[in-house]
Amino acid sequence: MDSSYLSLFLLILLQVMIKNLEQVVAMVLNSFQDPHPRVRWAAINAIGQLSTDLGPDLQVQYHQRVLPALAAAMDDFQNPRVQMFWELHLQLI
């Protein structure tokens, strides 16, 4: 695939994601409650990536929902990988 097409596609994808950010954040936060630790780990990773990419927009609009979800992940004593990963991404929020 030509790199100009790929970069255009990625820019369009980012715009679609931003337009639907409420649904994206809701889906990711719901995954924090998934019974499988890999899904919870991926959800924390997704929030971290969204925080990196969207920065202040995500922080201002969703901090009241994201921070409690990350704090709850801290209590995942059965899965230290998930527990450790939340701390890393909490710094990004």
Mean pLDDT across all amino acids: 82
Give the ordered list of helices and strands: HHHHH
Query: What distance lies between the first and last C-alpha atoms, to the nearest angstrom?
Result: 34 Å
- The CATH architecture category equals Alpha Horseshoe
Overall description:
- The radius of gyration is 14 Å and the shape is globular.
- Helix content is 81%, strand content 0%.
- It is mostly helical.
- The longest helix has 18 residues, at 37-54.
- The mean pLDDT is 82.
- The protein has a single domain (20-90), classed as Leucine-rich Repeat Variant (Alpha Horseshoe).
- α3 (37-54) runs parallel beside α5.
Write the layout of secondary structure elements.
Blueprint: H1 3-19, H2 21-31, H3 37-54, H4 56-73, H5 80-90
Main location: cytoplasm
Keywords: Cytoplasm, Protein transport, Repeat, Signal, Transport
HEAT repeats: 24-62
